[in-house]
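Q: Could you fold this chain for me?
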Amino acid sequence: MRRRSVHLAFGVATAACAVLAGYEALSLHEARRVNEAIASASTSLATSDVPEAQFAQAAGLARAGDYEGALQRYKALGRGDHGTLTADALYNTGNLHFREALKDSPDAALRLLPLIELAKQSYRAVLRREPQRWDARYNLERALWIAPEAEETMVETLQRDAEERVMSTLQSTRGELP
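A: Sure. Below is the predicted structure, expressed as structure tokens.
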């Protein structure tokens, strides 16, 4: 009886190890497929159904200076639901817009204000997905420094106008400090 239970326990452990080995073999096969797709994406621009390969294609196009091509691929990935890859695609979309706006000089970025606004939208989308993403926070702060929000300045202007109106409508008050 004891020998039978030992053999049964050994058989169960062997079967569990076989299932685990099969699962790991499938994971290895998937990882190799993704790596091959990424390697082929960097050498050719053939379309791929693997999101990681699309990301590698977009990164290659961005490095080559193809703004439109990289933007299309990053936006396609940003619309999907691929976990952190989607957030990375949104972040790189923001970086792509920001770099395009700063291409000539920081002063020229004011002429390209729509690109900076698009970059700010991308960084905010990343922060909605991953609030702890400090690199997106930093880049959003830089974009806000170059092109502050219009609403903030509008509110300040309205408050200042309201204060001036109150002072001018009151009788026997001076607009200066004593």
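A (continued): The chain has seven helices and no strands.
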